[in-house]
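I'd like us to work through together how a protein chain folds, taking it slowly. To get us started, please write out a protein record for me. Label the sequence line and the structure token line clearly, so we can match residues to local backbone shapes. Once you have written the record down, we can walk along the chain together.
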Amino acid sequence: MSLHSPLAPSSAVLFKRQIATSSSSFSPRFSMSSAALPPLPDNRVILGCGAVSVDFLAVVASYPEPDEKIRSTNAKILGGGNAGNTLTCVARLGLKPRLISKVADDPQGKRILEELEADDVDSSYISVAEGGNSPFTYVIVDDQTKTRTCIHTPGYPPMHPDELTEANLLAALDGARLVHFDGRLYETALVVAQEASRRGIPILLDAEKKREGLDDLLKFASYLVCSKKFPQAWSGTPSIQIALIDLMIKFPNIKFVVVTLGQDGCLMLERSADNAHCEEHDIDELLESLKSKIDSSSVLPSCVSSGIVKLQAKGIGIVNGRLLLGTTEKIPTAELVDTTGAGDAFIGAVLYALCTNMPPEKMLPFASQVAAIKCRSLGARTGLPQRTDPRLLHFLT
């Protein structure tokens, strides 16, 4: 069926009307007056395209051995999916997200839409299939290692680009400040990327891992945030930092690349147009120099940066720019609950930073703090902070 619109089948319309009447807003655990914060920009619409799902989470004392039977210590059913999580984060930070995705008209699809709408994520561009199944994921959270294992079942039928009508595409992009892709639904995402590029709307791409069609989306990306495993898996280079040089050379449209490193923080390579009087530095040596400047006694996230230099990787090439190294909050073991969706929260905060013109030196610690707050609760969205959370005040003022 086509994307939900005035011409869509009435069953899909009724399906969405049913959930609208049962949605309720989530209440922040902590709050402060928004008067203490800088004003939000007028243009703060973020369009996302990608995955939504229902997450079935089970916490276990330790991951089971093969053929072993164990019991969970906690369990929850919550909304998930990379794009859904990221846009929920964006909404709680005060921006105005819209989402292109697909669900089925089953109980799981109803729950997905209900949670998004409760967080003021515009779901009117989400296609609802008659029959089939909505995406869902089993998430096993290991309380001993503080890791999670995800087993995903895609939705059916899959989304096709022709479900996104031209009228809905143009309406979804109207007034958008930024566009975000999580690398899924790539055929539809490519249609959105082409039109966004034609309109000059910047694109942030999440590269969690190598996926079909990802290289096509990279050609349109203005900003790239990727997992620790992606850069080397994509480039085949001996280190992450060298892989970043390779990415920036092959995709000259990318303004910066950020790699999230879990408890080791994050690494960012920012391109510069300034070619005058730049010294040349080997990127491996420069990274080691930045590591020596990190204040290991700091509990809150921080960031150190190089100046603008010619960053050189032997056998790869040179990129003019800055290298930035960010740290994470040192979360007490007793407070660390679940890392599910931490990367999605980080990306949501990066989108907020870009929308509010936050400099990279502030953006990286802010994004790390948002992710750290999320990790104190079970599930990808439960702990996502509101913009008025006092734990963010230090990073927003």
About this structure: Residues 1-14, 20-28 have pLDDT under 50 and may be disordered. The first strand starts at residue 45 and ends at 49. Residues 300 and 329 are 5 Å apart (CA to CA). The radius of gyration is 21 Å.
